[in-house]
Amino acid sequence: MKAHDFDPDKHFHYERQIPWDDVASELGVEIDHSTPVGYNWPQRWQPKLDKMIWKFYPRLTDGRHLEVHVADEEGNLEAEFVDVDALTGTLQEPIFPDPVTNEHGITRMIHRLGEIIVIAGGVHLKLLNGQTYPDQRNKPEDPGPALSVYCKIEPPEGDNWVSAIGYCCLENDPHMHLGEKTNKVTKDPTSDTDKSDSIAWCVRDISAIIVPLLEEAGFPLFAKTVSQEAIAIGMKEVEQAFRVPVAAQK
Question: Which of 149, 182, 221, 230 is in Cβ range 3.0-4.6 Å of 104 for a Cys bridge?
Fold first, then answer.
């Protein structure tokens, strides 16, 4: 099997770059295109990774699933039938986006550096391991997922994709960032509830108040262009990934 236009040095829009119908045809089955392609999130247990470690789980019209992955940098694919229920609690436990994400134009890509990005409502929601970009507060002994919200900034505010908002959902020292690296403000949870469940804190804020957060981060013009509704739907997928059972992280 052969993937089309696979380049390990570029972003990998696997939902449109992998020739799903060709893969299915070789196996004598059909893809259910009404449902987004599921994926595992290996970065929850390995901070740095490459595209070859990712596995994808398209649903078939007969209700079964395939497990598909890119086997090498030439773009060759390997695929097999899999019981996704049997993957629960393992390192390969899949994330299955809600079909409603299709209606809101929500898509996904693997960043050229290996992270999954959920593209929703005008922003890029990059899912990270808290140790991917360690700093004085993201320490190896304090694990947890992290989210970076990237925005496409146009003149006069800038001319690039920038990380405007970040949440580090660490077990002991959760915190969030506002603004670019050169003008970044760090904030802590303001309640014990948010500190004890920082994933809920992150999901609630980005789902409900991303516009004022973007304004506070210094991007008021961009804030006017986003869709809060679509971002909230995308954040349900982020939460699903972040709440993978602890057993799957070992």
Answer: 230
